[in-house]
Amino acid sequence: MLYDEDYFFGKYSQIAAGADAVFERVKADFPNEVRCATGCSDCCYALFDLTLVEAMALNKAFRETLDEATREKVLERANSADRQTVKIKREANHARQKGVAPEEILQELGTKRVRCPLLEEDNTCLLYNNRPITCRLYGIPMVSGGQTHTCGLSAFEPGGQYPTVDMDKITDRLLALAQEFSQSIPTKFTQLGEVLMPVSMALLTEFDEEYLGIRPERLQESADGGPQEWVLGTGAEKE
User: Fold this and answer.
1) Where is region (Disordered) located (predicted)?
2) What phi, psi does 114 have (nearest 5°)?
3) What does the alpha-carbon distance between residue 34 and residue 90 come to, in Å, rounded to a whole number?
4) Fewest 10 Å CB contacts: which of 17, 108, 114, 142?
5) How far is CA 239 from CA 159, 186, 217, 219, 236, in A?
6) How many distinct structural domains can be found in the chain?
7) Quick check: 220 and 186 in contact, CB under 8 A?
8) CA-CA distance, 43 to 129, in Å (whole number)?
9) Which residues make Cβ contacts (< 8 Å) with residue 173, sequence separation at least 6?
10) Is residue 108 part of a domain?
């Protein structure tokens, strides 16, 4: 293995566990306001991106948890969702080029709805235990870019005094993890750690050596300062 899955996915799992703990604490303190329940799928239409390690973790769960027939069905839906997402982002980019204020663009993006390819007909999630951070926190107040957002189905009153989750800080932690990952492998892509993608693309992507930009041979400094040479696809060093 080219990288340490246990290390990077373990650190991501810690962030996810922290998000779960925050959600449960807010839910316990505001049981009447948090209305998340089995069968509610409002968050499953939200438009958001994943950072690299989060996308890879979801992809791993997708490939290892679901059977082949289910994966094929989900990939068909992912293709459709991805086309919708690309169109929405293209329209947002055109608006940006026309000089539309970023706040207006974000507000408009917040109204867009794309069905998650992991959402089943009975409104259950095929990978609920492996769902992204945003999914874990949806339903309680979140602040991003100075703007507070709440689920439209919740009972949090506008202007009320409630605890909010700083999504920018969480995103910074996820991006830092992605940067750490990209710096740990011999990639030719200097901006690999900055990659963002929707759930649909995370499911469709093959996170192999080609995608990660792995160089066939690259000298690495060993712990004692001597050179080590990576062998493509194994993560082992030549002696």
Assistant:
1) 219-239
2) -130, 125
3) 34
4) 17
5) 64, 18, 14, 12, 9
6) 1
7) yes
8) 15
9) 15
10) yes
Contacts of 116 (CB under 8 A, 6+ apart): 44, 45, 81, 125, 199, 200
Confirm whether 102 is domain-assigned. yes
Residue by residue, pLDDT tens for the chain (239 residues) are 678 999 999 999 999 999 999 999 999 999 999 999 888 999 999 999 999 999 999 999 999 999 999 999 999 999 999 999 999 999 989 998 999 988 888 788 878 899 999 999 999 999 999 999 999 999 999 998 888 888 889 999 888 889 999 999 999 999 999 999 999 999 999 999 999 999 999 999 999 999 999 876 553 433 334 333 333 333 333 33
Specify whether the CB–CB gap between 33 and 156 falls below 8 A: yes
Specify if 85 maps to a domain.
yes
Which residue range is the domain that position 17 belongs to? 5-229
In a domain, 223, yes or no: yes
Phi, psi of 168 (to 5 degrees): -65, -40
